[in-house]
Amino acid sequence: MQTGARYQACLELIGEIFKDEKPADGVINEYMRSRKYIGSKDRRFINDLVWHLIRNRRKLEFDAQSQDPRRILLWAVRDKLPEVFDASQHGLSPLTKEEEEWLREGNEQPYPPAVEAECPDWLFAKIKDIEFCKALNQTAEADFRAHNHARDEVIKRLAQEGINVRKTPYSPLGFRSSERISIGNCAAYQEGWFEIQDEASQIATILCDAKENEKIIDYCCGAGGKSLAISALLENRGKILAYDINAKRLEAIKPRLQRLGVKNIELTDIIADSDKDFDLFILDAPCSGTGTWRRAPDAKFRLREDKLAALKHTQANLLEIAAAKTKTGGRIAYFTCSVLKEEDEDIINGFLAKHQEFALMNLEKLWAQKIDQPYPHNNPYMLRLSPQTTNTDGFFIAILKKQS
Length: 404
Known about the structure:
Blueprint: H1 3-17, H2 24-33, H3 40-55, H4 57-64, H5 69-76, H6 81-84, H7 97-105, H8 113-116, H9 121-127, H10 130-136, E1 142-146, H11 151-160, E2 166-167, E3 174-177, H12 187-190, E4 194-196, H13 199-207, E5 215-219, H14 225-233, E6 239-243, H15 247-260, E7 265-268, E8 278-284, H16 299-302, H17 305-325, E9 326-336, H18 345-354, E10 358-360, H19 363-370, E11 383-385, E12 395-402
Parallel strand pairs: 5-6, 5-8, 6-7, 8-9
Antiparallel strand pairs: 1-3, 1-4, 2-3, 9-12, 10-12, 11-12
Helix pairs in contact: 1-3, 4-5, 13-14, 17-18
């Protein structure tokens, strides 16, 4: 592709992404699939610039004094205009006189706090922490979890393939890469040696303290990451029921089970009314996903207040289901990838106010038994992980035990 055509592709992509209707990664993947003529170097250029525009969208909109995708792009690349307008056939249309004047004028106003934080106003009013929002807007490194082999063995095997990784500081199963790993071309991945999983999610499954003689359900299992991690911790013994109301999601797990050689996970989209004796009820609750903005910075613009209200209602209802399905002496493990108190501590406190038969377990003590690092939070009963404290996604963990 000629240089101008690259910038035109970026404009077309942000024009679709900034409608805030579809996830950016899906829009980009669909765009590239339909244009197989775009070479690898062009794809990398387009991909990098588009994600830069997404991560700096609020500042660019403020500086450009516009939400128009073309103006946002022009402002972002204003120092490269001769390169951008290379007169190529498929490049951007020439600057208008109005645009030339607008670019000369510029905008020197200071950023409001929410703009500096790269956060929608209504969400920043809840988070109220510029540096925390900035940490959530940084690109995350790629985390992986060893499966079927010890972590050191996996790291050694990857080195033989020319892939250098390092151990995660908290999860004894995890390792991390600052470089992109093409898992499609990685033999160790194809042979089931490891899985993709953020360290925060690995920590959550470790703190479940699952045992092979327990009756375990991963409710709202989604892509099955927690079920697969517990399967690894149990060394493929015992039984894990992976439940999701969406049968298509369950179908998507099957190739992963086969690749990893997992035998102790049963997939189901039906739970019997009489099934009320679970020892461990894992509830990775549907949530705002605010803790995953490092990986999906566009998601913050698709979240709406009415959607958040509906999610909180769902979270409370799912905890009621968990309470009814968990036996005396059993545990509910409540997780979200949210950084919002109203989806986390407030939901748990509201549940405990209604259910005196449940009590929070001491996660700091459990952490000391499982993880060889200092406990990273000031609340021993409800744990928050974040890019600032643990260099992980934002994640919330609470485990409640049902007492007699």
